[in-house]
Amino acid sequence: xxxxxxxxxxxxxxxxxxxxxxxxxxxxxxxxxxxxxxxxxxxxxxxxxxxxxxxxxxxxxxxxxxxxxxxxxxxxxxxxxxxxxxxxxxxxxxxxxxxxxxxxxxxxxxxxxxxxxxxxxxxxxxxxxxxxxxxxxxxxxxxxxxxxxxxxxxxxxxxxxxxxxxxxxxxxxxxxxxxxxxxxxxxxxxxxxxxxxxxxxxxxxxxxxxxxxxxxxxxxxxxxxxxxxxxxxxxxxxxxxxxxxxxxxxxxxxxxxxxxxxxxxxxxxxxxxxxxxxxxxxxxxxxxxxxxxxxxx
Length: 297
What we know:
The chain is α/β, with parallel strands linked by helices. It has one domain: Aldolase class I (TIM Barrel), CATH 3.20.20. It has eight helices and ten strands. It has helices spanning 47-50, 86-98, 113-125, 142-147, 164-171, 176-191, 217-230, 260-272, and strands spanning 35-42, 55-60, 82-83, 104-107, 132-136, 154-157, 195-196, 202-211, 236-240, 277-280. Strands 1, 2, 3, 4, 5, 6, 7, 8, 9 and 10 form a ten-stranded mixed sheet that branches. Helix 7 packs parallel to helix 8 (260-272). The protein is globular.
């Protein structure tokens, strides 16, 4: 995998090959160093991630997708907040551990892998002991995941689409399924099923997330089919009902919440596939109050 030190950015499957150190900007909009829009305790992840203490979430600016329904749309393609190097990022991790966070939750980390690896190593030298969570949209290269072995304890990938036409329409990406599926297989080969501590908090493993979108049950079924064919039934799945139309889009199906019937059919199909460890949400989770607020300073 080419690195920023080699002058071109190949951090994700888009292979923009821009020189970010010289001010080049690729699809994600990320700068040479990460911008952090929020770093604080976050309580709205899966129960084994947030627990009672909260997850130590670090929200990065920049994203290699451009989902029309993105809940973090205010930061996904702009740089706001605090610009950090590996030293400041390591300090943030230590500070969150000091707040009794269950883990360090790196949200949209993909464009910043180089700095993240350095920061985690530095933080561990300074006494960081809680797990590192890699909270990603799933659009990753296998090489990038290989580089994170020994750095990441818990992978929390989205598996958004089995249908690349839908991915192109909603997230502006042509090859999502091929890249995400290969990357998630690699994640699982590194970390396997979730291992919990005595309080039910995840310490290691993979939780595959899938957000059920309105009028796309066929896509949900396709994602679950792939998981069933390529992972053991013990794999941890988070089947999410929390879709909220944050902004009006050109796609009428996306301008409404999920119906109870749509989500029930998705859950029924998931259980029919025989998965043993599935997180299921209440439809009441589809509320804007669960979306983090980002500082503009």
